């Protein structure tokens, strides 16, 4: 009877072992199948999002999502005219307009922070903000085209870039024009923080 009990116990243990192994294998197989499905879905999504332009080049990520960098501001402009030259020219102008919006808003934000820290009057701040708008064109002289892409419908997209080193001196000149004894200046870090704040607010 003792022998029969031991045999029965051994059989039960073997059954439990094989059942556990079988369950583990089934779980692993299910996990692998799920991962394969996710990979397939991701590949299909990439294929859907992959657009080949008129020049045979796949659409860069910046066309849809723009670009960010710690040393400057990027903006995307687009245009479609009867020929490539006019489209490029208009797309650059539109890209600069986007840069101008960002620069004006961010410099105003940086100057506002400066005004709050130094206790300037609201009137002085208004004059400084107006001066910022007037100086935007001169600031944008430092902008350059970093890339371009022609869509399948021949719309031209350009990626424009403006380094913070072109923005900071102009912003500090505005401050100096209205506060001759200014002891502190805006820095690249402060302008960058203002740009990030502008993006969050939009």
Walkthrough of the structure:
- This protein is mostly helical and about 200 residues long.
- Helices cover about 65% and strands about 10% of the residues.
- It contains six helices and three strands.
- The protein has helices at about 1-50, 60-65, 85-120, 120-140, 165-180, 190-200; strands spanning about 70-80, 145-150, 155-165.
- Strands 1-3-2 form a three-stranded antiparallel beta sheet.
- Strand 2 and strand 3 (about 155-165) form a beta hairpin.
- The longest helix is centred in the first third of the chain and has 48 residues, at about 1-50.
- It is flat and about 80 Å long.
List strands and helices in order, with pairings.
Elements: H1 2-49, H2 61-65, E1 72-79, H3 84-118, H4 122-139, E2 144-150, E3 156-163, H5 164-178, H6 188-201
Antiparallel strand pairs: 1-3, 2-3
Helix pairs in contact: 3-4, 3-6, 4-5
Query: How would you characterize the largest beta sheet?
Result: 3 strands, antiparallel
C-alpha termini separation: 82 Å
Number of strands: 3
Rg over alpha carbons: 30 Å
Structural class: mainly alpha
Our estimate of the beta-strand percent is: 5-15%
Strands of the biggest beta sheet: in what spatial order?
1-3-2
Q: Kindly report the average pLDDT value.
A: 80
Global shape = flat
H and E order: HHEHHEEHH
Task: Please count the helical segments.
Answer: 6
Please mark out the parts with pLDDT under 50 across 5 or more consecutive residues, or reply none: none
The level of helicity is 55-70%
């Amino acid at each position: 009877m003792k022998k029969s009990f031991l045999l029965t116990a051994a059989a039960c243990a073997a059954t439990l072992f094989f059942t556990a192994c079988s369950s583990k294998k089934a779980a692993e197989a299910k996990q692998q199948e799920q991962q394969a499905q996710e990979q397939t879905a991701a590949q299909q999504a990439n294929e859907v999002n992959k657009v080949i332009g008129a020049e045979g080049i796949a659409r860069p990520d910046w066309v849809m999502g723009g670009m960010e960098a710690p040393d400057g501001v990027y903006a995307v402009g687009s245009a479609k005219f009867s020929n490539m030259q006019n489209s490029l020219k208009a797309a650059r102008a539109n890209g600069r307009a986007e840069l101008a919006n960002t620069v004006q808003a961010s410099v105003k934000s940086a100057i506002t922070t400066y005004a709050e820290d130094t206790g300037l009057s609201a009137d002085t701040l208004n004059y400084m903000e107006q001066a910022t708008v007037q100086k935007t064109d001169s600031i944008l002289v430092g902008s350059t085209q970093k890339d371009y892409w022609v869509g399948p419908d021949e719309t031209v997209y350009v990626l424009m870039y403006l380094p913070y080193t072109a923005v900071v001196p102009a912003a500090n000149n505005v401050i100096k024009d209205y506060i001759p004894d200014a002891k502190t200046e805006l820095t690249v870090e402060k302008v960058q923080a203002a740009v990030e704040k502008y993006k969050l607010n939009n």
